[in-house]
Amino acid sequence: MESSNQAEVQNSLEAGLPTWESLVNNYLLVSEARAHIEALQRLKSPKIVKQLRPLMTGLFTLFSGAIRRPNLPDLVNTHWNELVDLASEQVVRNIHHANSNSLTTGMNSSSILNHKFNQLPCSQKNLLERADLIAEYIGCDAPVLLLGDDDLLSLELAKRGFKNVTVVDIDPTIIQRIQHIAAQHDFPIRAKVHDLQMPPSADLIQNYGLIFMDPPCTVAGLKLFVGSALTFCSALRTTKFIACTHSMSLLQPGIEEFRNYLSSVGLRVTAYKPEFAVYPIGKEVRFFLGALRFTLNVLLMRHKIKLARQTVPRFFVSDAVLMQHK
Q1: 117-142 pLDDT, tens per residue?
Q2: Per CATH, the architecture of 115-279+317-325 is what?
Q3: Whose CA is closest to 140, among 120, 159, 117, 114?
């Protein structure tokens, strides 16, 4: 049964963009993960930080390509405690999702994934949940725009009867695959190669009922996708926006920066859905995280700290932000 504190935190999360404090409090209240969280939180000890920080900086520098976060070594030096909080949150979220998201999308198991474009498809279950969420907000006749689609969400929407689906993606391989499958099934999908750093062509600008995006979990990534989404709208006030992102990955200053950015472009958050987006983590990254856990356990023996296998996540679990013009 949910405690009154948990309910209070959950309500505060759903009211708009969360504060860093509410995010931290949310995972600290999860009793089934308490032992794992306590072990991770001990890594904030100044003595342990002094011992581990140089090692972690070196490791993250060496494996920055696999992790796809080139600024992570700098963050280890400037935001250590927040990274510990992020790791703790992912442990909790993985416990919640361990048994319900084992299947991946077809793209996730495919060799055509292009990591240069930050492609990380969601789980099969989450793909269906994304289509469900879109269907909650607009009818099948309303035009839908997807900014990027390595999950193949456009195909799922077409299967459900959506009659006007547009996809833009920087990766021509993704676009070609969508076009090929859509042609086979006579799906009403328009798919075009497009770089969001460039303005859209005139034929892509229309009165979309909803624009869905899944940007990199950085402030720069969110600004690029949200800012680009606005340029596709011919009637901004009627368009709804959904962005999958991970609030804790923005870190404490980034959350406030994104909040201020939304205000500056005239958008308000209408709903915030924690733990909405679920992405299976690839074997390469999981191997690195497992090796990192083993190394840390060796170094932490004299401090009597042991990180359990549950501290190595199988999924990256993020959130969804729903927005509309003020």
Answers
A1: 677 899 999 999 999 999 999 999 99
A2: 3-Layer(aba) Sandwich (3.40)
A3: 159
